[in-house]
Please model this.
Amino acid sequence: MSKVIKFILFTVIALVIFRKDYASIKKQKDKKEKRVYISTFFLGYILVSLLVLEVNLPNPSDWIKQAYQPILEPYINSLKSHKLLE
Amino acid sequence: MIEKGKISMRQFTILVFMYTLGTSVISLPSISTTFAHENGWIAVLMASIIGMLLVFMYIIISKLDEKKNLFELAEWIFGKWIGKAISALILLFILFLTAGNLRQIGDFLSTQIMTETPIQVLMVMFLLTALFAVKLGLEVTARTCEVFFPYAFFALLALLVMVTPTVDITKIQPILQKNMVGTFEAIVPSLGTPFLELFIFIAILPYVKKPKSARKGYLIGVGLGSFFLVAITFMCLTVLGADFTARNLFPTYVLGKTISLVQFLERIEIIVAIAWFFTIYFKIVLNFYVLSLGMSHFFQLKKTHTLSVPLAFFIIVLATINSPNIIYYLDFILYYWAPFAAVFGILIPVLVLIVGKIKVRKKDNITKTE
Model:
């Protein structure tokens, strides 16, 4: 299946999910609730679309590794020296 | 309180038990044995003791105000803005944790059982059922957990009993004679899953009917779960040996394959595997629920499940991108996960406890002088 077909399929599914799920939020009169829901849903939709379109998304695990690497280096080296299998 | 439902102490204990076993039941023996070798079970035992001490600390935190959950406590103790910042960090961690758990079950299914099925399909199916549970609320989740608990409990017990004839104690000897430093260092990665993740129950404790008995249930659940973790690691080591346990990413599944009773009862590992489908499922559901609850608190929404669907999108994206391959995942879980989780499982709770105690004392002094 090509990327574009996948994307169209996902968009249709997302629209169906939105219609079904938003109906319960629509009943509430609170505008803030609706605004927060729509913006997070839209953000989620964009992220999944990028994934479907096979765009290279940055990996948050890499950020964690980079942030912790300087502090953890001695600990990691020590652990590696006890590793059973290399 | 956003959450209107209440669960019983029994249900809470079962939830804690299922969460403790969660993903650890399949991966912990391998993690601890990688560094502690034949003393892997001792590393898990010591991690369990530290885990119980952490639970004691979480219980003291929950006592600061029994009616407030984790996110409400953070705002009450640190004030609106710092409290919100801490809540946001915790929420990011839980999002990462949920995605990691989903990836773990996806990896397990796609490499061991349904090898032809794409991992994304398996993850989406698991996430959809979890989403359904989150939408139905805490009460329904707890009742469902009650239904599946006997199966998970007895299947794991049966696994332990049925592999007993093949136990070879010499595989773990000499005990604590070699690799002492490695054994103690293995406690840190062993703590990462599940003990440093157990703080999420501070968010659920206010929704248990009797807070006092709930705290007891918290300890019983973790204690029972830890017993199973130690026992399974012990069995993996004595049946499969240290080398084989460390080499396999899912040694418990391999352990299930060794079951053979009078050449009649064989290849029943899938029955045991289904048991941890339940434990992992409930771990994902609880993480997802707390994430949804926390987001509703963060944005001051009226319902706990308002953002559950958008959050499901985030979880599936993160689960797909967070580990490009199994080697990367293994490297992350062995070296980085425990220190990362320690910030949320130790550092933040200690801060909450210290500042919270000072605040409660000040409040008491003011009321006394009045």
Notes: Chain A has three helices and no strands. Residues 3-81 of chain A form one domain. Chain A has one domain: 3-81.
